[in-house]
């Protein structure tokens, strides 16, 4: 048996299952709900456990992340070991903040109002808004309850391919939707009669219990294209599913495009002028180059969960106490927090946007070079910052103070994300024959769409300088679109007509994809 002693004194036993990792077995026991696990990457360290006896041989990733002393004490990363019989102890879990916001009050909802629920179903997070009529009465965000079974699309699909895996994943989201519906009904004082769920293609098909083969292996294709209403379960209201536009450009993008085009994120400027770009950045980067009302060019690239605060050493989702930015001051780097500094004993970590801010500050100070390597610059401030680096577990780590550090492997992950974004943008522009300066706006949605600084994106090479001033921080366009599609028949008709106006680029099948990607693994923009 797997014997698990928890930090609060409980002891649980689970049947070994060599098809699972030990971390997955612990997650399925309900012990890591709300913990932003990197789910098998061996990077976040949040799945660490201590083997009471007979610890398995350590992996190189564990030496880098935990150190030799902890390994000698029996600590391991459970995502790197199978769910075999063992006796382990769990530390207190480091959960992600739920960061919920309420709008309206119970007193504003009336029993006669129709209640509805708009949901953005992301790979990493779920965002939702409860509606009474057209009024938002509650909203919030939280980790996708599937997170412990794969931190990005392909690993999630890999778990779904196991016997019973797809049913487990589907059940986790359905259970959470039931809870959200019940909470919305309590708030609205009325039954929820309508849902709109906008998610990427993989999350949508998992939710609906549809075949996943077309998304799991090349040549990728869609077997379901959305644009209809589906029954999720007998005890849930029917769900409106926006169109899926391509294998990895999903309903979140069609809903987001409706929000940007029909209910612009900048009301003072009216509807956006063509051509414009919508970029939704999460574990998958989804891009729409809107050339005209009747022509949309699509692209997608895998980006991993780093921008959502998952998978980096101190990565956390945005919640009070997390670092959201770093300011470069004469005294060095100064962290800026979400709402407040972390409280005593609290590990707030660093958000994805905070990591981008940090990398941009280090680049400006000369402590990082264009390849993403730590260097000792000529300037006094740069030398002061670089003096906080040391070798730990075989890699360079920059001490940020407050128990936080930036290892070289985290910088490498950020460079990969930048390369993917840069590649998608440059290929879309090349296909359309446009120069970057021709774009009227870049609407940035998803994980970075509310808080990122355009100057940081330009400094790191995500965008050319010419577009930095045209960046619109669009926020969660997927959720805004889902809400719009619940209440506007005209918007629903508009979005259902989108697929016939779209053409997708298959970047991954391009013979030159690898070389183009590697060429962009530098912290400057490559056209």
UniProtKB/TrEMBL annotation:
Domain RACo C-terminal residue range list: 277-525
Q: Which Pfam families match?
A: RACo_C_ter, Raco_middle
Domain called RACo-like middle region: residue spans? 116-263
Taxonomic superkingdom: Bacteria
Q: Which InterPro entries match?
A: 2Fe-2S_ferredoxin-like_sf (IPR036010), 2Fe-2S_ferredoxin-type (IPR001041), Beta-grasp_dom_sf (IPR012675), Corrinoid_activation_enz (IPR052911), Raco-like_middle (IPR041414), Raco-like_middle_sf (IPR042259), RACo_C (IPR027980)
One example of the protein's molecular function in GO is:
iron-sulfur cluster binding
Name this protein carries in UniProt: 2Fe-2S iron-sulfur cluster binding domain-containing protein
The organism named in the record is Humidesulfovibrio mexicanus
Q: State the organism's lineage.
A: Bacteria, Pseudomonadati, Thermodesulfobacteriota, Desulfovibrionia, Desulfovibrionales
């Amino acid at each position: 048996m797997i014997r698990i002693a928890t930090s609060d004194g409980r002891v649980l036993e689970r049947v070994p299952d060599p098809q699972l990792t030990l971390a997955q077995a612990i997650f399925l026991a309900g012990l890591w709900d709300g913990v932003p696990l990197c789910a098998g990457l061996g990077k976040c360290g949040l799945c660490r456990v201590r083997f009471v006896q007979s610890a398995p041989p350590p992996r190189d990733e564990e030496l880098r992340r935990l150190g030799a002393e902890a390994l000698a004490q029996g600590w391991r990363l459970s995502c790197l070991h199978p769910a075999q019989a063992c006796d382990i102890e769990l530390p207190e879990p480091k959960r992600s903040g739920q960061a919920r916001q309420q709008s309206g009050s119970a007193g504003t909802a009336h029993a006669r109002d129709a209640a509805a629920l708009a949901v953005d179903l992301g790979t990493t997070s779920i965002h939702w808004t409860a509606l009474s009529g057209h009024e938002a009465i509650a909203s919030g965000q939280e980790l996708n309850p599937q997170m412990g079974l794969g931190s990005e699309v392909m690993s999630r699909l890999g778990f779904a391919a196991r016997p019973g895996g797809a049913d487990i994943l589907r059940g986790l989201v359905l259970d959470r939707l039931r809870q959200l519906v019940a909470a919305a009904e309590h708030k609205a004082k009325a039954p929820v009669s309508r849902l709109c769920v906008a998610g990427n293609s993989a999350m949508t098909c998992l939710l609906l219990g549809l075949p996943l083969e077309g998304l799991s292996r090349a040549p990728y294709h869609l077997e379901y294209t959305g644009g209809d209403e589906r029954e999720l379960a007998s005890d849930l209201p029917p769900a409106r599913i926006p169109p899926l536009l391509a294998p990895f450009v999903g309903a979140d993008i069609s809903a987001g495009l409706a929000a940007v085009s029909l209910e612009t994120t900048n009301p003072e400027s009216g509807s956006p002028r063509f051509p414009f770009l919508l970029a939704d950045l999460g574990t998958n980067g989804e891009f729409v180059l809107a050339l005209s009302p009747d022509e949309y060019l699509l692209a997608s690239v895998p980006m991993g969960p780093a921008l959502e605060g998952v998978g980096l050493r101190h990565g956390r989702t945005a919640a009070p106490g997390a670092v959201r930015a770093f300011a470069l001051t004469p005294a060095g780097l100064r962290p800026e927090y979400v709402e407040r500094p972390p409280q005593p004993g609290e590990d707030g970590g660093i958000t994805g946007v905070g990591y981008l801010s940090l990398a941009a500050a280090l680049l400006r100070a000369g402590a990082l070079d264009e390849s993403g390597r730590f260097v000792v610059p000529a300037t006094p401030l740069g030398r002061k910052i670089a003096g906080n680096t040391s070798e730990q577990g075989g890699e360079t780590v920059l001490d940020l103070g407050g128990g936080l550090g930036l290892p070289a492997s985290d910088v490498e992950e950020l460079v990969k994300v930048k390369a993917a974004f840069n590649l998608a943008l440059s290929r879309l522009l090349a296909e359309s024959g446009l120069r970057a300066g021709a774009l009227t706006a870049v609407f940035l949605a998803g994980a970075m769409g509310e808080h990122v600084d355009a100057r940081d994106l330009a400094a790191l090479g995500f965008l050319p300088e010419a577009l930095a001033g045209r960046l619109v921080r669009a926020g969660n366009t997927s959720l805004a679109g889902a809400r719009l599609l619940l209440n506007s028949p005209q918007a629903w008709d508009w979005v259902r007509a989108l697929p016939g106006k779209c053409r997708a680029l298959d970047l991954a099948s391009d013979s030159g994809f690898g070389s183009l990607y590697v060429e962009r693994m530098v912290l400057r923009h490559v056209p």
